[in-house]
Amino acid sequence: MKFAVIYYSVSGNTKSMAEEIAEGIRIAGEEARLFSIEENVDPAYLEQCKGILFGTPTYVATSHWKMIEWLNHTSGINLSGKLGGCFATAHYAQGGGDTAILSMIGVLLVKGMLIYSGGAAFGQPFIHHGPIALDAVGTHFEDSREMFRIFGERFANKALELF
Ligand SMILES: Cc1cc2nc3c(=O)[nH]c(=O)nc-3n(C[C@H](O)[C@H](O)[C@H](O)COP(=O)(O)O)c2cc1C
């Protein structure tokens, strides 16, 4: 099954976590490709994907406007019926990573995606709206890599179950 991880990243953090999610999808035995919204999105591949994940840095406690703009105006992809998930990076726990994720989820719902975060039912690591890595809180960023891989794996397994 094909998956895509689409991200916007200024200083590389969100890209780095997108790579971990893609690795988790591959651990589940499925195909994952990474796309920066500014470089290399492949609409033909996205059409074939059953699941697409979206990542953003947190800017002023919401998702980066370029991510929303891309989703609103330039994606040109029919996302309806596909499984969607979101992730973010941020400086601080109180910095708005969750609202960044929720602002993207709102757009994905309008576009008809089925949204999946894994939820808290799996236990550790608890992922509520989507995984968030913090780059200004001790070793949180590096420590989060495993959580992002697990998120990718759970997401792929859910898509396999559904489709
Ligand atoms: C202009 C600007 C605004 C930011 N606003 C927030 C914020 O509101 N909350 C927060 O926790 N981090 C904030 N950050 C930190 C970034 O979200 C964080 O460093 C992120 O990992 C950057 O991702 P990137 O390396 O993929 O660009 C901000 C950074 C910049 C440059």
Determine the mean pLDDT. 96
**Overall radius of gyration:** 14 Å
> CATH superfamily, please?
Flavodoxin domain
Number of domains: 1
Derived structural class: alpha/beta
CATH topology-level fold name: Rossmann fold
User: How many separate helices?
Assistant: 6
Give the topology string: H per helix, E per strand: EHEHEEHEHEEHH
Q: What does the main sheet amount to?
A: 7 strands, mixed
- The helix fraction, in percent, is 40-55%
Ligand inventory reads: flavin mononucleotide
What is the β-strand count?
A: 7
CATH domain class name: Alpha Beta
CATH architecture label name: 3-Layer(aba) Sandwich
Shape: globular
How would you sum up this structure in a few lines?
Residues 3-156 form the Flavodoxin-like domain. With 163 residues, the protein is of the alpha/beta class.
Which short descriptors sum up this protein?
163 residues, alpha/beta, single chain, Rossmann fold
Structure description:
The protein has a single domain (2-162), classed as Flavodoxin domain (Rossmann fold), CATH 3.40.50.360. It has 6 helices and 7 strands. It has helices at residues 13-27, 43-48, 65-74, 97-110, 140-143, 145-162, and strands at residues 2-7, 31-36, 51-59, 62-63, 83-90, 114-115, 132-134. Helix 1 (13-27) packs across helix 6 (145-162) and helix 3 (65-74) packs parallel to helix 4. The N and C termini lie close together (9 Å). Bound molecules: flavin mononucleotide. Flavin mononucleotide binds at residues 9-15, 57-61, 89-92, 95-96, 135. GO terms for molecular function: FMN binding; oxidoreductase activity, acting on NAD(P)H. Residues 3-156 form the Flavodoxin-like domain. It holds the Pfam family Flavodoxin_1. This is Flavodoxin.
